[in-house]
Design a protein that fits this description.
Blueprint lengths: L1 E6 L5 H17 L2 E6 L3 E6 L17 E7 L5 E5 L7 E6 H16 L6 E7 L22 E15 L2 H6 L7 E16 L2 H6 L5 E2 L3 E5 L8 H9 L9 E9 L10 E7 L6 E5 L4 E4 L1 H7 L5 H6 L18 E2 L6 H10 L4 H9 L1 E9 H13 L2 E7 L3 E8 L3 E4 L2 E4 L3 E8 L5
Parallel strand pairs: 10-16
Antiparallel strand pairs: 1-5, 1-7, 2-3, 2-6, 3-4, 4-22, 6-9, 7-8, 8-9, 11-15, 11-18, 12-13, 12-17, 13-14, 18-19, 19-22, 20-21
Helix pairs in contact: 1-2, 1-10, 8-9
C-alpha cells in the first residue's frame, strides 16, 4: 500500500483552492471524515459514524457531505493498493489538516512556492497489539493506525549584524536566507474492506424533484442570493425551516417569474416567510411537466412504459445519484386538502395551475449550504418533495489539451445531502 500526493498552491491556486475549501467545509461540519483514494480521484465523505453505519440511506439529523477532487488537481498523484479499484480508505481529523493548510497559506502569502507533499506512513509504535476482548474469548480486529505525513519548505530572510559577521570572518552581507522544513503527522485509521463498502452515496427520489440552478455567487445576483440564504441566521432559536419551491404553470401578469423559492418558519409563536425575488433557472423534471401542463401526452408515456427521458446534462452530468421509488402524489394530495377549504372552487383552480415541492430540514444544515455557496462557482439546489434536499456545488477547472484535442477538465464538486426532519 502506497500513497503520495503533491500540490503547489502558488503554481495552481485554483486547484489548491478546491482542496483547501473541501477540507475546511468538512472540518466545519464534523471532527472526522473518511478519505477514499482511488486511481482517478479523492472522495472526502462526512457522515455520522462514517465507518460503522450504512450511509446509503438518508435519515433525519444525518446530513452527509460528499466531495470529489479529481486526481489532476495534484501535481503528482500515486495510489497503490491491492483492493478493488485501487482504493485506500481512511478516517482522519480534518481539523488537523486544516491547521496545516493555514500554515501553508501563510508561507505562500510570504512569497514561497514550495510543494506540499502528503504521504501515507506506517506507524508501528502507534498500534497496540490486542489479542483478546474483555472476556478473553476471541481476538479483536482493530483498525491499523497510520499517519498522513505532510511536509513543505519555507524560505525565510533574516537580517544579521554585519559587524558581527565581519568579526567572525564571514562576508558582510546584511540579509541571509534560511530554509525551514515543516513536517507534520496526522493520525489516520485505515478502514477495512467491509467498512469501506458500507459507505455509499445516498439515493435520492427522482419522481418528484425540482432543481434550481442558483445565481452565480460572483455574478450580478450573487450578493443578493447570499443575503437570502443567510437571512435565517438572524434567528438563533429557529431549529427547522421549510424550503418551498413552486412552479406556476399559468404565469400571471402580476408575476415577474413563473418560479418561486421561499424559506418558511412555522414552528414558533410567529411565522416567517423569506422569498427570493430575483431570477431562478429552474429545471423541473419533464414527467411532472407532462402530467400538469400537457395532459394529452399521458398516452405517450404509457406506451413508453412510464419512462420519460430526462435531460441528464441539465442535472450536471448525473451528479445526483438517483433511484426510482414510490412517493406521494403531491398534486392529488394538495387537491384533496383544498376540497375541505371553504373556498374550494378558487383554491382547486389555483392548485391546478402550480406545482409545489417542499421539504423540512434543520436550520443548521442550511447554514452549511450558505458556507458552500460562498466557496464555489456553480450551485444547484434540488428539492425532493417531503423527502430530502440536495445542495450541489461545482468548481469548473478550465480545459486541457491532449492528442484528442481540447477537453474540459473534470469539475471538483461538493454535494450536501439533507434528509427531512419531519413531514411537510
Amino acid at each position: 500500500m502506497k500513497l503520495k500526493l503533491v500540490i503547489n498552491g502558488s503554481e495552481s491556486p485554483e486547484d489548491y483552492k478546491l482542496l483547501k475549501s473541501t477540507i475546511s467545509t468538512v472540518a466545519a461540519l464534523r471532527k472526522t471524515a473518511v478519505l477514499r483514494f482511488s486511481s482517478e480521484r479523492l472522495v472526502v465523505v462526512s457522515t455520522p459514524n462514517s465507518s460503522t453505519s450504512n450511509s446509503s440511506i438518508l435519515h433525519g439529523d444525518n446530513g452527509q457531505l460528499w466531495c470529489t477532487i479529481p486526481r489532476d488537481v495534484f501535481a503528482a498523484y500515486e495510489v497503490v493498493s491491492a483492493r478493488d479499484l485501487n482504493t485506500i480508505a481512511m478516517e482522519c481529523s480534518c481539523d488537523a489538516l486544516q491547521n496545516i493548510f493555514k500554515k501553508y497559506d501563510r508561507s505562500i502569502n510570504q512569497g514561497n512556492d514550495s510543494n506540499l507533499t502528503i504521504k501515507l506512513q506506517s506507524m508501528p509504535e502507534w498500534n497496540v497489539s490486542v489479542t483478546s476482548n474483555a472476556d478473553g474469548k476471541a481476538p479483536l480486529k482493530v483498525n491499523p493506525v497510520c499517519a498522513l505525513g505532510v511536509t513543505f519548505e519555507e524560505a525565510i530572510n533574516t537580517n544579521s549584524d554585519a559587524n558581527a559577521v565581519a568579526r567572525m570572518g564571514g562576508p558582510a552581507h546584511g540579509n541571509t536566507t534560511k530554509v525551514i522544513s515543516h513536517s507534520f503527522k496526522v493520525p489516520t485509521k485505515l478502514l477495512f474492506r467491509a467498512q469501506d463498502a458500507k459507505i455509499q452515496e445516498p439515493m435520492i427520489n427522482y419522481t418528484q424533484l425540482m432543481m434550481y440552478r442558483l445565481p452565480t455567487p460572483q455574478g450580478e445576483w450573487g450578493a443578493g442570493f447570499q443575503s437570502f440564504i443567510r437571512r435565517i441566521e438572524r434567528y438563533s432559536n429557529v431549529h427547522n425551516i421549510k424550503l418551498s419551491g413552486m412552479k406556476f404553470w399559468q404565469l400571471q401578469d402580476s408575476r415577474a417569474s413563473d418560479h418561486e423559492l421561499k424559506i418558511i418558519v412555522d414552528e414558533l409563536d410567529w411565522s416567517l416567510e423569506i422569498c427570493w425575488n430575483g431570477p431562478l433557472d429552474a429545471m423541473i423534471q419533464p414527467q411532472a411537466e407532462n402530467e400538469v401542463a400537457v395532459a394529452p401526452d399521458e398516452s405517450r408515456a404509457d406506451r413508453d412504459g412510464g419512462n420519460v427521458e430526462v435531460d441528464v446534462e441539465a442535472s450536471r452530468d448525473q451528479s445526483l445519484f438517483i433511484e426510482e421509488s414510490e412517493s406521494l402524489d403531491t398534486e392529488n394530495t394538495a387537491a384533496t386538502e383544498q376540497m375541505h377549504n371553504a373556498h374550494s372552487g378558487a383554491a382547486s383552480m389555483q392548485a391546478d395551475s402550480r406545482s409545489k415541492h417542499e421539504v423540512v430540514i434543520r436550520s443548521r444544515d442550511w447554514k452549511v449550504c450558505s458556507k458552500l455557496y460562498e466557496a464555489f462557482e456553480e450551485v444547484v439546489l434540488a428539492i425532493s418533495h417531503d423527502e430530502s434536499c440536495v445542495f450541489h456545488c461545482t468548481l469548473p477547472r478550465g480545459s486541457v489539451e491532449d492528442e484528442d484535442g481540447e477537453r474540459p477538465r473534470e469539475h471538483g464538486q461538493v454535494i450536501y445531502y439533507m434528509a427531512r426532519v419531519k413531514r411537510v
